[in-house]
Amino acid sequence: MGSGIAQVIAQASIRTVLTDADTANLERGLEAIASRWERQVATGRCSAEDAAGFQANLSSGTIADAASADLVIEAIIEKPEPKSSLFKELAPIAPPPTIFASNTSSISISTLGHASGRPERFVGLHFFNPVPVLPLVEIVRGLETSDLTLAASKRFAEAIGKTPIVVNDSPGFVANRVLLPMINEAIFALQDGVAPATSIDEVMKLGMSHPMGPLALADLIGLDICLGILETMHRDFGDDKYRPAPILRRLVGAGKLGRKSGQGFYEY
Ligand SMILES: NC(=O)c1ccc[n+]([C@@H]2O[C@H](COP(=O)([O-])OP(=O)(O)OC[C@H]3O[C@@H](n4cnc5c(N)ncnc54)[C@H](O)[C@@H]3O)[C@@H](O)[C@H]2O)c1
Question: Which protein residues touch ligand 1 with a CB less than 6 Å away?
Fold first, then answer.
């Protein structure tokens, strides 16, 4: 997600710094962006000069670069503790006016805002996968997110060519509160032997006009991310209707995370 987000921001003529705790992942992200721009040139969607301009807006860095940032967008692992620790680390580096945002799929923006020490200038900017393709940014307003932060977030989303929709802070927000129970139910149907994965996906594609089936979509999102979202909703709502299917937990435990690891419900 980080590379997709960095790509669309750099394309909007905004200076962008991408960083990752894992340098191999950082390199992979930068290479993925460069190859997507090459493909845009090869298919005539932008000129070579445009692509060179995009590339000039993008660099790799470290969290020390937050010292000169207007906006910091976090897109790390979907677990509350590492996200809170990262924002605590960023707090003394970024100047007070810098807005902090999380691309979390489900974790409380009010809680992360509190950890950051700047809850008024903290917001959820929830992008969708693949970021360069999907137009939505779900903007999540925490309990203390200020009107100014919200207005700046909406302007930012529009400036990078996205359509913002503002929602309140609640586990899973709107998108994943609706989507993940469907994906989880598809996984339970697979576990119960109702049909094989391909049939479950075909039913939803042919019968419901979904562009991809729920199991293929889970593989695209990442099974660890799906599990993280379900765990957050299960814990924060205290409602068993969000309990993750045991085979989802088993696949994640075995390192089968979907497309990014080469295997999930399907092989890649
Ligand atoms: N995958 C999706 O479809 C999707 C969609 C919307 C939002 N999100 C959210 O975006 C975030 C990232 O998801 P992803 O699918 O890109 O995950 P991912 O596992 O592909 O990437 C996470 C990256 O974060 C890095 N990282 C982990 N801890 C770090 C730290 N402390 N500091 C710096 N970097 C660190 C990892 O090295 C890795 O490169 C999650 O919060 C997820 O819920 C994901």
Answer: 1-2, 20-22, 25, 75-78, 82, 86, 103-105, 126-129, 221-222, 225, 260
Q: Are 250 and 191 in contact (CB under 8 A)?
A: no
Return contacts of 238-245, CB within 8 angstroms, 24+ apart. Answer: 241/181, 242/180, 242/181, 242/184, 244/184, 245/184, 245/187, 245/188, 245/191
Task: Give the tens place of pLDDT for each residue, 198-231.
Answer: 999 999 999 999 999 999 999 999 999 999 999 9
Share in percent of the chain as helix, strand, coil (round to 5):
55, 15, 30
Average model confidence (pLDDT) for the chain? 98
Mean per-residue pLDDT for 159-174? Answer: 98
Mean pLDDT of 66-82: 97
- CB atoms closer than 10 angstroms to residue 52: 11
Q: How many residues does the chain have?
A: 268
- Nearest ligand 1 atom to the CA of 29 is 39
Tokens of 67: 């010292």
Before 130, cis peptide (omega within 30)?
yes
What number of other Cβ atoms are within 10 A of residue 51's Cβ? 20
